[in-house]
Specification:
Elements: E1 2-10, H1 20-33, E2 35-36, E3 39-40, H2 43-53, E4 58-61, H3 66-69, H4 72-83, E5 87-92, H5 120-136, E6 144-147, H6 154-162, E7 167-168, E8 192-194, E9 197-199, E10 204-206, E11 211-213, H7 221-233, E12 238-244, H8 258-273, E13 278-280, E14 298-299, H9 302-317
Parallel strand pairs: 1-4, 1-12, 1-13, 4-5, 5-6, 6-7, 7-9, 10-14
Antiparallel strand pairs: 2-3, 8-9, 10-11
């Protein structure tokens, strides 16, 4: 049995940092509800499909935006996820720190994109603020974290441990993971204990050109299913998939991305159909199962990769 974590990063962007107060209401509508002429394809749609298929998922919700725009939009997000029967966990995009109405740190005058750009004490302060915002919005039992853009380091894990958070899912071997200080000199692809926290890294695979992380919008259905079967055969402990609350929309966010919508529905149906092999997991109540060593990354066959390249070319043409 393979533990599969379908994780959704919930975040809002105003397409730049100019005039964000005017832009925010429309940005919230597009990034969270995803309205299109064919109906909504945002967060409520994802929650409905997951509920209909009986699939558990983790929604990493970014709360720092509410220090600029107030608590009600964050409360709406938390309510949607909880009503959908899924768990809310903490996600931080530090680009919002210098946009807050009230200073969050002593040094808030410049934009710092990644959490690792802050000291350990500053990271702990931001994590504490994020936890408080989520709890005030109605979330409870928060025990997992993901840094925005996977920009974390070992100081992040130390800050999480000091804040009572047991699990992190910020390690991405295709981005900042290898330089984070977690098992320096080795690629982490399976859960590992580090600095008082259990790290659940993103699933990654070698597609023949290098490592690629497993994201709904970046992998074909053939790749996803092949990698899941491969991970099961190799007796992997966990398989972490990434998505976003707006990932079922095209780049302009004015219509559904039909290819990604089909991938999402097919993945949920696949997990539902193969419950004897794949267990949909969440971090709440999780008992970690750690491997004795870190194995090599998974690999993708040429046919599955070729199918993805064709699909992605089609998506770029019609985005």
């Amino acid at each position: 049995m393979l533990n599969v974590f379908f994780t959704v990063d919930v975040e809002i962007w105003c397409d730049g940092w100019e005039d964000i107060d005017r832009k925010f209401p429309e940005a919230f509508r597009r990034y969270i509800h995803g309205p299109t002429p064919r109906g909504g394809f945002g967060l409520p749609y994802q929650l409905d499909v997951l509920r209909d298929q009986g699939i558990g998922a983790t929604f990493f919700v970014e709360p720092l935006f509410s220090t600029r725009f107030g608590p009600h939009p964050l409360e709406e997000i938390v309510h949607l996820v909880r009503e959908g029967g899924q768990e809310v966990q903490l996600h931080l995009h530090t680009e919002w720190v210098d946009e807050s109405r009230e200073p969050l740190l002593e040094d808030c005058r410049r934009k710092r994109q990644h959490l690792f750009m802050f000291s350990r004490d500053e990271q702990r302060r931001l994590i504490t603020i994020g936890l408080g915002l989520l709890r005030a919005a109605g979330a409870d039992a928060i025990n997992a974290f993901r840094a925005g853009s996977f920009g974390f380091n070992v100081d992040t894990l130390r800050a999480l441990s000091a804040s009572g958070i047991d699990f992190d899912s910020s390690y991405n071997a295709t981005l900042f993971g290898p330089g984070s200080g977690v098992l320096s000199g080795r690629v982490v692809v399976e859960p590992v204990a580090c600095e008082g926290v259990i790290e659940y890294p993103m699933a990654v695979f070698d597609d023949g050109t290098g490592l690629r992380h497993v994201q709904l919008a970046a992998c074909s259905s053939a790749e996803l299913e092949s990698l899941l079967w491969q991970a099961l055969e190799r007796q992997r402990k966990a398989f972490v998939i990434l998505s976003h609350s707006f990932e079922l929309l095209n780049q302009a966010k004015n219509r559904p991305d039909d290819i990604v919508v089909r991938r999402f529905r097919r993945l949920c149906a696949f997990l539902d159909r193969n419950r004897d092999s794949f267990r949909s997991c969440r971090f709440s109540g999780l008992t970690p199962d750690l491997p004795a060593e870190q194995p090599a990354p998974l690999t993708s066959g040429l046919w599955a990769t070729g199918r993805r390249i064709i699909e992605q070319a089609y998506r770029r043409r019609y985005r």
